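Quick illustration, no need to memorize.
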Amino acid sequence: MSATSDRLEGAAGVAPRAGRTEWIGLAVLALACLVYAMDMTVLHLAVPMLSSDLRPTSSQLLWIIDIYGFMVAGLLITMGTLGDRIGRRRMLLVGAALFTVVSIVAAFAPSAETLIVCRALLGIAGATVAPSTLSLIFDMFRDARQRSVAVGVWVGAYSTGGAVGPIFGGFLLEHFWWGSVFLLAVPVMVLLLVLGPKVLPEFRDPDAGRLDPLSALLCVATMIAVVFGMKSVAQDGLGGTAVVALLGGLAVGAVFVRRQLTHDDPMLDLRLFRLSTFRISLLINMIGIFVAFGYFLFVAQYFQLVLGMTPLTTGLVMAPSGIGFIVGSQLTPRLVRVIRPAYLIGGGMALAGVGLLMMTLLTTDGGYGMALAASVVCSLGLAPVFGITTEIIVGSAPPEQAGAASGVSETGAELGGALGISILGSISIAIYRGDLASTLPPHLPPDAAQAARDTLGAAVEVAAGLPEALGDSVLTAAREAFLHGVHITAGIAGVASLVIAVVAFRRLRALPPGDYSSED
């Protein structure tokens, strides 16, 4: 459509439709999201090679893996709010430049300490990507139908990154050094830096006040402490460190909330949480991420450590799940024109619940068919959930607060993921260790028994160094204990999905098909 007709539509009170420039801009944003998602998955495949080369301590290795997520979770709201003030495109391009430079440094990191610093800086850069891309999409696509398609592409980019990350990462690790996985981001980010100024609009709130540094610090401290506490629970159980982190994070969070309610120019307008569709959609989005970890957390381990697949083969086998997510996210904009969001979201959560309950049928020698089918069913179910709830969350906010609302949406997703890891991971580990306390061979050396009870990966390494018969006994016991944990946690996640499906049906049924971004 021409610019003249766009102006006429805008003058008549009809939202202007996006043109070729906006769709090219969407493609650039989708590539950035794809890389962001890939960077969150490929490092796990590189851990064995990285450990052999840099020889990090166990504590350093945990920081290498976790610091990226801590920084992303802690800074999402702050970066979204900052983008509203200084410009969303500018924020995105600054983050892309930092991501490019630090990725190159990380690829050639000479020590574990250097890599930890690089991962932290990548987290800071990554925190600018998600809220900036989503808020820019809401600036570029004002027409309801086009916006639904654009959000579907945005969701699909994340799922594509999660699907192809293990494949590309596995290929690189089989042919190059561990640092090569960091270079995957460089060409895409360079493309974003070149095309971004040409095809992406700039938006800032002209009436926004100055960013409150104390509020930003309180927000970051709250999120990092809470996520750290959750992950500590997943790794070591409910110990002193986890309790202190969680209680400290909640206390700082209370101070943050009080400051936002009393400050003349709050960083985050908490009145958004008075909007019922905003609250319910945010809750559903969080639970969706939570249950997604119910299978993402265990399926890759099942393929590699129970069925014995290589990282590359695992990535290829998991690709249909990513394809299912892409298909579901692209069908959603068409379906939502004629079907109420409550039915799509509720039906999607119910379908995801069925997929998770299918995981309770996995066996140690049953092949990958059931795991693959369960993953595809979960992906098809969750795809419309993420796209629609994201659009409701950001669409409920005033345009000048789209960046902050995007940050809240992404922070909710990070919290949902952290909860999934901590709660489901803790339950699984407890069951695994409890089972092995009575099922490991009684004549196993104490050191080997202790290592085998730590994780399934450790049990596989222990078994490889034992006589064949004894090693087989250890493997059988460990794999059965692991699957027992998978069955219980998948069942919990499945029931949670079915419950939240009922919530969606009941609480969102007033939203009509089509444009549901306005609040009741």
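Residues 1-12 have pLDDT under 50 and may be disordered.
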